[in-house]
Amino acid sequence: MQESDLKLLHEKIPKLLISLALPMILAQMVNALYNIVDRIYISYIPNIGTTALTGVGICFPILMLISAFSALLGQGGAPLASIRLGAKKEKEAQKIVGNCFFSLTVCAILLTLIFYMFSKPILFAFGASNDTIGYAQSYLNIYLIGTIFVQYSLGLNPFINAQGKTKIGMATVAIGAILNLLLDPLFIFVFHLGVRGAALATVISQGVSALWVIRYLTSEKSKLRITREDFRFDKRIFWMVISLGISPFIMNSTDSLVTTVFNIQLSTMGGDLYVGAMVVLSSVMQLILMPLNGLNNGAQPIISYNYGAGVYSRVRQAVKTSFMINMSFTILMCLLCVFLPQLLYTWFTPDEQLRTILAQVMPLYYFGIFMFGAQSSLQNAFLSLGQAKVSLVLALLRKVILLIPLIYIIPAVTNSGVNGVFCAEGIADILAGTTTTICFLIIGKKLLNKPDKRQSKG
Predict the structure, then answer these.
(1) N or C, fewer C-beta in 10 Å, the chain?
(2) Cα dihedral sign, 226-229-232-234
(3) Residues with Cβ within 8 Å of residue 125, at least 6 apart in sequence
(4) Whole-angstrom distance, CA of residue 19 vs CA of residue 167
(5) 283, 35 in Cβ contact below 8 A?
(6) What is the mean pLDDT of residues 284-305?
């Protein structure tokens, strides 16, 4: 049994979770720099910064959708591979990796072609105006060149983390994000490429990340390896991956849908400046989500491996520890966003008019974020346990069932205009977090209230 397997089975949960999660949290925070740094630099372009920022922000639903397909295959396949490793079925785990690599390749080709052909009408449908469409197209047309890099770097990295190799997983995103941080000002301000420079920096950085993750997964250091033999389509494995990956796919793709709905409502009710405010709020949300995602990614191999090995006491402890850390963090961020929002939004724009709007709407948008900790940790627990249907329903609940209708209902019922639009986020967070907690108390008890199949020391 390899050292990583022994740690997953026997090392004390708090220590193990911290050791696995910290590299992932750092990786996720660094990964957030990809889009956030683009937005910050773009906002400081002389004379056009705020308009260009709004235009690039219109592209993010498309970027989220591209990332959603990598989550569909990567986050759908990685827990399955991890469970197979825990059950000592290494050959099956290997086939899952090869099938996902093949599927990511096909997916990247199709997405690139579709978005290139229909980029302009899609951007207008997503809330672009005549003033912002030029910046949106300039950014998107270059970004799409790197679609295959996004699929490989984001879709294959979970298979590194699934082995408990979170430091290697951290390096995957850290290398690309640091490179992006260096290239952005060079292309934007030195070479005067504007938003095209920001997109080009991102493409190059994602390409380097993709090469790194492929190099590791084809090396002998990896327990889950990409081989020519397994690089093929297997219908049975594909549908297993899709059935589990549909939940993170919906989480990511509905981010795209929600952002589009927000942009359209805000463009109609408030204009481009409120769409620009939404771009900043989305950037701050990334800063909140990235540590949560890192913690959940660190918890995933512990939960999946021990569930596959039948050590249910360790699964219960891992879920509890993850839940408590998630909740502590989101409560802290809620207090910060509501009472000291200026500490966050001033980084993203020098425009005083936009800052005034953000001081008003940020507390409205984030007052319910404290309950997102429950939603995030427990939905990840369902996913790690292979509970695809439950995870799917909960993924749909917060955004599709609750948030999107509330974006339209609250302003109409309360006559609160754009303030009502922003309040919808907080209300949806509270309702979804509460519902997810109740579901896990009921369903999780049935799944995990069992004696261990093998003895554990931790």
Answers:
(1) N
(2) negative
(3) 260
(4) 9
(5) yes
(6) 87
- Residue 52 makes CB contacts below 8 A (sequence gap 6+) with 42, 43, 45, 135, 194, 195
- Find, among 362, 407, 422, 351, the residue nearest to 53 by Cα: 351
pLDDT of 397 higher than 80: yes
3-state SS string for 205-251: HHHHHHHHHHHHHCCCCCCCCCCCCCCCCCHHHHHHHHHHHHHHHHH
The answer for residues whose C-beta is within 8 angstroms of residue 236's C-beta and 6 or more apart is none
Question: Which residues are CB-contacts of 415 (< 8 A; sequence separation ≥ 6)?
Answer: none
User: What pLDDT does 139 receive?
Assistant: 94
Q: Which of 445, 303, 441, 319 is nearest to 385 (CA)?
A: 303
The pair phi, psi for residue 46, each rounded to 5°, is -55, 135
DSSP H helices, 270-311, are: 272-309
* R_g of the chain, CA atoms, integer Å: 21
- What's the rounded Cα separation, in Å, for the pair 281 and 254? 17
CA 37 to CA 198: how far, in whole Å?
9
Residue 422 token pair: 């922003």
- Least confident range of 27-41, 134-148, 166-180, 294-308: 27-41
Taking a C-beta distance cutoff of 8 angstroms, is the pair 172, 157 a contact? yes
Query: What average pLDDT does the structure give for the chain?
Result: 89
Residue 334 neighbours by CB under 8 Å, 6+ apart: 366, 367, 368, 369, 370
Contact 306, 325 (CB under 8 A): no
Contacts of 9 (CB under 8 A, 6+ apart): 305, 306, 309, 311, 314, 454, 456
% of the chain at pLDDT higher than 70? 96
Residue 35: predicted pLDDT = 67
* Residue 381 dihedral angles phi and psi, to the nearest 5°: -65, -45
Among 75, 219, 99, residue whose Cα is nearest residue 159: 75
> Which range in 52-66, 253-267, 326-340, 437-451 is most confidently predicted, on average pLDDT?
326-340
**Residues 151, 9: contact at Cβ < 8 Å?**
no
Q: Residue 445, Cβ neighbours under 10 Å: how many?
A: 10
3-state secondary structure of 191: coil
Which two structure tokens, joined as six digits, stand for 173?
């995103």
